[in-house]
User: Fold this.
Amino acid sequence: MVTHSNTRRIEISPVTRVEGHGKVTIHLDEANRVTEARLHIVEFRGFERFIQGRPYWEMPVAVQRLCGICPVSHHLCAAKAIDHIVGGAKLTPTAEKMRRLMHYGQMFQSHCLHFFHLASPDLLFGFDSDPATRNVIGIIGANRDLAYQAIMMRKYGQEIIKATAGKKIHGTGAIPGGINKNLSVAERDALLVDIEQMKKWSRDAVELARQYSVTNIELVKTFASYESNYLSIIRRDGAMDLYDGGLRAIDAGGSTIFDHVPNAEYLDFIREGVRNWSYMKFPFIRSLGEERGWYRVGPLARMNTCDFIDTPEAEAARKDFKALTNGRPNHMTMAFHWARMIEVLHSIEMIERLLHDPDLQGTDLVVSGERAREGVGIIEAPRGTLFHHYRVGDDDLVTMCNLIVSTTSNNEGMNRSVRRVAEDCISGQPTITEGMLNRIEIAIRAYDPCLSCATHALGKMPLIAEIMGPDGNVIDRKVREP
Amino acid sequence: MSEIVTFTIDGRRISAEAGQTILAAAQACGIYIPRLCHKDGLTPVGGCRVCTVRVNGRPASACTQPVAAGIVVDNDTEELRSWRRQIVEMLFVEGNHFCMFCEKSGNCELQALAYRFGITAPRYPYLWPKRDVDASHPDIILDRNRCIMCGRCERTSRDLDGKSVFGFVERGIHKTLAVNADARLADTDLDLTDQAVNACPVGAILKKRTAYRTPVGQRQFDREPIGTSVETRAKLTIDGGEPR
Assistant:
């Protein structure tokens, strides 16, 4: 490790072990002021390269394997891209609604997992609470009902995924131009049994997140926060749509940068930058350039970009959320949690609506049309806008793949949040405490990046932070056991 | 009427027609002997050795060895199960088998046997060979990554389709499935309706654009694990006469 003569470097490594190891480095000058703070993603996955030469119909099932947390999002996004290859982008009502049901099930379970299992210990016990109990086991001990609710909500989402994709993880439901099964009456009725309970718990979750935000408003306003641009897909009428729509980007003041951009034209509006210290790219809005064009995605972004939510209870919750900032974009990183729970409520409302739709028992499952050589799919994954782009040869083998994963879009945002926390909490401090390390993680965790999954309560890896002297020797070292 | 002979498998007395193979005779009596290179209707070759049994103490492939009066056949012993497991594990490491996204998953005999044998991971190191995919044919894809060299396609094409589209070249670890053309499957006379297209026990020869059409839970071996149709369907002619 090379250090500059008058600086010290704190390293948190690994931050995670999920879909790419991450580490945080914080550079301090001689007065212990933060000069630089970075989140590095240090593992390279290479999916875009090694699926070249594979048949296009494998994409929805193969590429979803790049993630064990949100495979449904990749499964559906790849399927949406491949739909264009087979000329089947206009799905049958049964196929589209089955895919949507799968997607809302995924959104529901993923958000619940993150909020209850990973984030809630910080929110309920405090940033500086004893790390020995600041985890999901601590939640079980302190609030058994909440822990039970968390597990049952996640289970419910997983059951929806199983009923639509065939398996709870890494299913095969979405196929080029459609879906391989409908929802049987028995499956539908089994899912309807618990719907009222799920709605109630979802309302409670929104209230829990709202209460946290308003009670701790001074912290929430500033912690890890930055003004930024926001991106999502949006329905034609401006409604939040997690499954399909054109791209919308807004700036920090809420003004539209672009709107209803067709998915196939994303490269005219979004570019990816590369930096030599991270394997994760840095996407940006092309018209604004790399310096000013970075943007955030995910639940907070979607609350900021959408004009309304098309389900009544979530729309009421959204209005409540927007009132906090008088209708202007909300830049509070910790408000991701509240926004996430509003999406949980929206998802369960959509699930209920779909379960009562007889189209789900339809038998017209697949369409095809004119073969194309290129397809782009964009979807709102739990963590934000997800892009899949494929080119296919006449022999049906993939020749090019470009993926912009949600967490990648939040790369700059997470780095800024890490820097902000480092400046606010570590700068000028002579020693580092466990609470400081946890604050760095809390900032990253608010985004629910794929690399958040293991950082916290469920993690088995200790966090290691070292202060290096000018000669590169370790002069202070803290290890936080999981 | 052909001669009936009597012999034992794992101590059970079996009656079979003279000239039947041990595999066929066992199958007729509801005893499943695992196999990969053999398929009903094809001339057996005893290539994969998964069906290895002991006949009067000597190893033999059940798909080629005819029955004889009074022979003592061992089939379901720990030793033979271990041999079969090892053969299947070697087949897994010798090719590039990614069940997790393979479109043949759930309909694959190699995978089904691995499940039957309780294999969770092979004990041998993966060889990760570089193998080619031939997608030149408009309706059929040949993925050599998954080929286990069983030769079913070769025999089916030659004996049932009368075409000889497939064959093998090279030897040992370099052995490769070849097609009867200068290079590409598209240049052969293989037709989508040929029986050879359906002969592959794994995912090496597949009809294009049919992947994942059957939902998880309804695929062939989801509904009926390999061997169970033999074990539950057939009537037994064993001591006591009760179906197994």
